[in-house]
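Sample log: 3-methyladenine DNA glycosylase.
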Amino acid sequence: MEILGPDEWRARADAHRRRVGAWLEPHLERRRRGEKHPVEDFLFTYYSHRPNRLLQWHPGAGVELAGARDLGRDYVNTERGAAVDVDGLLARRRSSVEWTAALLARTAARPAQFGCFGLHEWAMVYRTPEVRHEAWPMRLSADEIAGIVEARGVRCSHFDAFRFFTEAARPLNVLQPTRETQHELEQPGCLHANMDLYKWAYKLSPLVPSELVADCFALARDIRAVDMRASPYDLARLGYPPVRIETAEGRAEYAALQRDFSRRAEPLRLRLLRACESLLAVPAQSPPSPGRAPA
């Protein structure tokens, strides 16, 4: 058990709140004004982690906070202070940790693929009048968008992107991902798989340190910007110049950005996997149930 003195853990908690607060405040201010932002708000609307939960700091498993007491249901008081209740949390979450560890390990073991060129966003608006960000114009006409999707095809391996495809676009995808095949299909070049590291991090919280959750959020935030820059939406007025994947130059730019995100995601995926493995090494208090996706 690592022991953090009061000055050290309070400094870490304050630093985390300052870092996360810089991301949260613009979102909360827009929410107060009733405004929507198609890029910056995504991580707070698509993902289920509430802003106040992201703002909270946790040291992670195996750390004792000297001088702390009564920190809530996910903590236990100790002789010197308080610590995350690892046994209690694992009694409820072990199967989810097993599922997450398997996904992280199998994704990391695959070679990265960089040939999708972000066409998942195009498939979400393919031959439909209904779009998710109706307040923002498209860079191309509906017929031009359809022509590009049909000419290039779609190579999306990520179920949670694929499930937002239009009905007409789904047969055009070379894969038909499902939740059941997620472990077999996710690969480390996928923007959405790397953005989802934030999801796996916060679902492991408070068993992992909040600094790791924030590191994954920072990566996801950068990925979301490129995701929408490569989409058919015109967001230049918001300061997002397009990555024109309909051109050879744009596809090369997208693939280069994708490779950079894959490199940045690799150590985060490894840190999450190591955290899962460490947790699963803790003896189970009761027979574990079969692994399942985190709720």
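Observation: The first helix runs from residue 6 to 33.
Observation: Residues 2-280 form one domain.
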